[in-house]
Amino acid sequence: MIKTDIIIIGAGPVGLFTVFEAGLLKLKSHLIDSLPQAGGQCSEIYPKKPIYDIPGFPTILAGELVNNLMEQAAPFKPGFTLGEAAVSIEKSKDNLFIVTTEKGTVHEAPIVIIAGGLGVFEPRKPPIQNLSQFEDNGIEYIIKDPEFYRDKRCVISGGGDSALDWAFFLVDEKIANKVTLVHRSSSFRGHLDSVQKIINLAEDKKLDLITEAEVIGIEGDGKLERLVIEHQTKGLQTIETDHFIPLFGLKPSLGPIANWGFEIEKNAIVVNPKDYSTNIPGIYAVGDVNAYENKLKLILCGFHEGTMAVQSAFARIHPDKKNILKYTTVNGIQGF
Ligand SMILES: Cc1cc2nc3c(=O)[nH]c(=O)nc-3n(C[C@H](O)[C@H](O)[C@H](O)COP(=O)(O)OP(=O)(O)OC[C@H]3O[C@@H](n4cnc5c(N)ncnc54)[C@H](O)[C@@H]3O)c2cc1C
């Protein structure tokens, strides 16, 4: 049994910063995340993309932001249960919360802060029969590190910003040996500017653009070797490739949290914007996972919400103690 002051479900940027703010109030945190690493969407979806709206950082890569948040939280020695989804929550007879993961790890604390973001998210996959056989053997749904594709032949599929931006990046940075972009329509959902860049690359013969076509078959002995593409007018075509990267977006789903008795609105937990408390006393929800009037799903808003939630949590844990706001410039960081 892991005992702490605050169980934080979700080790995304907001969960990580909440550890720091809790630490300033001398409250110890333990984070649970279903992913094998901390960082949430920043690590899983766009670690190499620059973010431009983190105060004090004119530009910072999402992966660097996560590293910095980990460093900032480190003095407060957070615990981590990674690679395990939190599946149930109960009350003990001492009125503490017991949170259990899918692998049976049990955590106990007087306060729970849900920083579950989009929840447990799944990529949208193309309906190809033997797809799962090649997952991680040539098929990836997220580009985590473009270097993985160095000198490789890549087929990207999709018509949104993610597909267009990555196809452009892999060609423009001279990373992949060959890039083919397959899209089922002749028009794209991505930004006009991104579409134009792709058309220019195709005209310069630096990228193969195949429109009005879909990947319908995957072939290979143990790992991906060839894709079968069906054109709406020209029939079938087989192309040799090392990687197939369908970028059709992610399906957000709250997952197990949806059944824990919270008031839910549009796949998010309704909170009181005074302190981001939920309808269950002692449980808060911060970051992308919560809903209130004028909510903005931005990292900086999540940082504020985590800060306010731990102030309220402090008052619940220590009803007889007065908490006076102290500047870090005056007090420094008193780690654990
Ligand atoms: C491509 C892209 C670009 C973006 N650019 C910007 C930008 O420029 N600026 C900006 O401010 N925002 C940007 N965002 C949005 C930003 O990433 C999110 O607002 C931010 O990640 C929210 O942080 P979070 O900690 O609330 O949630 P998340 O980052 O989603 O992390 C939540 C974590 O909770 C975990 N989790 C969920 N349910 C469970 C469970 N039951 N058990 C265990 N773990 C669970 C998930 O695995 C996940 O790791 C962008 C998003 C995307 C996709």
SSE blueprint and pairings:
Elements: E1 2-3, E2 6-9, H1 13-24, E3 29-33, H2 40-44, E4 50-51, E5 60-61, H3 62-73, E6 79-82, E7 86-91, E8 97-101, E9 106-109, E10 111-114, E11 122-123, E12 153-157, H4 161-172, E13 178-183, H5 192-203, E14 208-211, E15 213-219, E16 226-231, E17 235-240, E18 243-246, E19 250-251, E20 264-265, E21 268-270, E22 283-285, E23 290-291, H6 299-317, H7 328-331
Parallel strand pairs: 1-9, 2-3, 2-10, 3-6, 10-22, 12-13, 12-18, 13-14, 21-23
Antiparallel strand pairs: 4-5, 7-8, 8-9, 11-19, 15-16, 16-17, 20-21
Features:
single chain; 336 residues; alpha/beta; 5-stranded parallel sheet; 27% strand; elongated; binds flavin-adenine dinucleotide
Helix content: 10-25%
Integer average pLDDT: 95
Range of strand content: 25-35%
Q: What does the largest sheet look like?
A: 5 strands, parallel
What is the straight-line distance between the termini? Answer: 20 Å
Shape: elongated
List cofactors, ions and other ligands: flavin-adenine dinucleotide
Which residues form runs of ≥5 with pLDDT under 50?
none
- Please state how the strands of the largest beta sheet are arranged side by side: 6-3-2-10-22
**Class inferred from helices and paired strands:** alpha/beta
The total of beta strands comes to 23
Q: Report the C-alpha radius of gyration, rounded.
A: 23 Å
Helix-strand pattern? EEHEHEEHEEEEEEEHEHEEEEEEEEEEHH
Instruction: Please count the helical segments.
Output: 7
Describe the structure.
With 336 residues, the chain is of the alpha/beta class. It is 23% helix and 27% strand. The chain has helices spanning 13-24, 40-44, 62-73, 161-172, 192-203, 299-317, 328-331; strands spanning 2-3, 6-9, 29-33, 50-51, 60-61, 79-82, 86-91, 97-101, 106-109, 111-114, 122-123, 153-157, 178-183, 208-211, 213-219, 226-231, 235-240, 243-246, 250-251, 264-265, 268-270, 283-285, 290-291. The strands form seven sheets. The chain has a five-stranded parallel beta sheet with strand order 6-3-2-10-22, covered by helices on one side. Strands 1-9-8-7 form a four-stranded mixed beta sheet, with no helix packed on it. Strands 14-13-12-18 form a four-stranded parallel beta sheet, with helices on one face. Helix 1 (13-24) packs parallel to helix 6 (299-317). The longest helix has 19 residues, at 299-317. The chain is elongated, with a radius of gyration of 23 Å. The model has no long low-confidence stretch (mean pLDDT 95). Flavin-adenine dinucleotide binds at residues 9-15, 32-35, 40-42, 45-46, 51, 53, 85-86, 115-120, 255-257, 287-289, 297-300, 302.
